[in-house]
Please model this.
Amino acid sequence: MQKLEGLAEDVEKRGFPGKIIPVACDIMKEEDLDRVVKACGEQLGRIDILACIAQSGLNCQAYTMETTPENARLYFDGGPVYTMQLVQKCMPYFEKQHYGRIITCASGAGVTPTVGFTGYSMAKAAIVALTRLCAKEFGKYGVVTNCFLPVAKSDGFDSSEQSKEAAEAVKRMSPVGYFGDAYEDISPVVAFLASEGAHYLNGQVLSVCGGLLTLV
Model:
């Protein structure tokens, strides 16, 4: 909770005009997901935007022959499954309002799988599929659903030696030669997906990676 409160203070210092309500949540626990949705609905009166960005299991990378069912389930429960659950819990608000923005976060590994990250790549591909399904199902309610694939420096890269090595390899291959910054490079894209200007963008997957992965 302390980390969340620090993040809220940082965002406020950057001039964010809205109200920030930090709520700690274990995405693997449905009761926590319920608590977050309830807190938003009660304190803000409505829910306009759902952004699912967390992913658990980042320190459990494995090659295909080493991946256990438990390993794969960890990635799925901490990625596409919790994302689906939050969509289900927020949709009553969106339907009532006839308005909503659903923003999912996957990875280039879900489009071009990364060797040694089997469970992670599978789960990220599932998030892309879920994004496109939601776009087809919920557009009639004034809800658009899009996914972004970020490459930005985060604590996840320090979760294991394998992750650190992968991060350095990605940096070397980047056409721009650096990792994106969460605030400067990634957040403007997310803000656009959450904006009125994205009302006709639906079911799309945007690679925000400095040119590492180009999508057709």
Notes: The mean pLDDT is 91.
